[in-house]
C-alpha cells in the first residue's frame, strides 16, 4: 500500500491491509509471549469452535493523532476489560488488560506510517479479537485460542458536518433477555444483518431494537447505544442486561455530568413515551455520536430536534468527547493513553 495515494479526508470505513498485526496463541493452558506478524491471514483447523459454534469475541477502538503530533488511544483498558467479560460469558481464556493495551500500542507504532494526520478527521481503527481454534467437534470450549489485533486508517464519520438520520423499530431481537447481548460476540451480529437489511430497504439508516421481553423499551440503535435529552436537559440512556455496554456511552454519561453540568439517568426509555426527549442520538466508537432525526414506530415517524440539523446539546456532547479523543480538551485522568 502506497501511503502517498491515501486521501485521508476521503477514507471510508473500509478494510485496508497495513504492515503489521499482533498475534498471540493460547495452548496447554497459557498464552505465548505474542509477536508482530506481516501476513493478514490465519491458518486454523476446519473444526475450530469459532467457525461452528461462534466461540469468538471482538473489540473496536481507535488511535488519534493530536495537534502536536502525538498518538493516543482512548480508554483501551476499558476495551480490554469488556473483552474479558465477553470471554467469561463464552468460556474463553482471558487476555490480560496490560498485555491488551501494550499490544494495541505495538500495532499502532508498527503501522505508524498509516496513522492519519491531525485535522483530517481520520483515525486508526483497531480490531482486537479472540477466537477458539484447534481440533474439536462437540459443542464445548475450544482446546486452543488466538488473540489478534489488526488495524487500518478509517475516514471521518461525518464528512460535511453532523447530519441526523432516521431509524425504524424492529420486530426482531438482537439478543435474548439473559442471552449474550452484553457480550461483544460475533453471533449477535450475524443475527442483526437481516433486520438491518429490512430497515435499509424501508429507507432508514438502521433499526432500533426494543427490549426482547416486552418490546416496549428502546435498547440499541443498530450496533450503537441510545441516549436522549429530556425537555428539562437530562441525559438519559437505557439500562438493561441485554444492552452492549458502550464505552462511548459511559464516557458521555461522565461528560454530561462533569463537563456540561447535566443531570444523568440510566433508566427505561419507553418507545411510547419518546416525546419526552427533545434530542436523541446513537453512540459508539465509529461515529462517536450519530444524531437521530426521527424514529418510526408502528407506522408513525416521531421527529426529535430536526431531521436535518443536529441539536445543541448533542453537538456539545460530541464536541467535548471528540476534543478529548484528539487531545484538544483535557480528559479525565487515564482516559487517553499515549503511544510512544
Ligand atoms: C461495540 C458496540 C457498541 C458501541 O460500543 P463502544 O464501546 O462505544 O464502541 C454499542 N452497541 C453494540 C451492539 C456494539 O457491538
Automatic annotation (TrEMBL):
Query: Does the record bear Chaperone in its keywords?
Result: no
Which reaction equations make up its catalytic activity? L-valine + 2-oxoglutarate = 3-methyl-2-oxobutanoate + L-glutamate; L-leucine + 2-oxoglutarate = 4-methyl-2-oxopentanoate + L-glutamate; L-isoleucine + 2-oxoglutarate = (S)-3-methyl-2-oxopentanoate + L-glutamate
Q: Name one GO biological process term.
A: isoleucine biosynthetic process
Cofactor(s) recorded for this entry are: pyridoxal 5'-phosphate
Task: Determine the domain of life of the protein's source.
Answer: Bacteria
Tagged with keyword Cell membrane: no
Which pathway is it part of?
Answer: Amino-acid biosynthesis; L-isoleucine biosynthesis; L-isoleucine from 2-oxobutanoate: step 4/4; Amino-acid biosynthesis; L-valine biosynthesis; L-valine from pyruvate: step 4/4; Amino-acid biosynthesis; L-leucine biosynthesis; L-leucine from 3-methyl-2-oxobutanoate: step 4/4
Q: Check the record and name the Gene3D superfamilies matching this protein.
A: 3.30.470.10, D-amino Acid Aminotransferase, subunit A, domain 2 (3.20.10.10)
Q: Where is the signal peptide?
A: none
Per UniProt, what is one Pfam family of this protein?
Aminotran_4
**N6-(pyridoxal phosphate)lysine PTM sites in chain numbering:** 184
Record-stated family: Belongs to the class-IV pyridoxal-phosphate-dependent aminotransferase family.
- The entry's protein name is Branched-chain-amino-acid aminotransferase
| Classification lineage | Bacteria, Bacillati, Bacillota, Clostridia, Peptostreptococcales
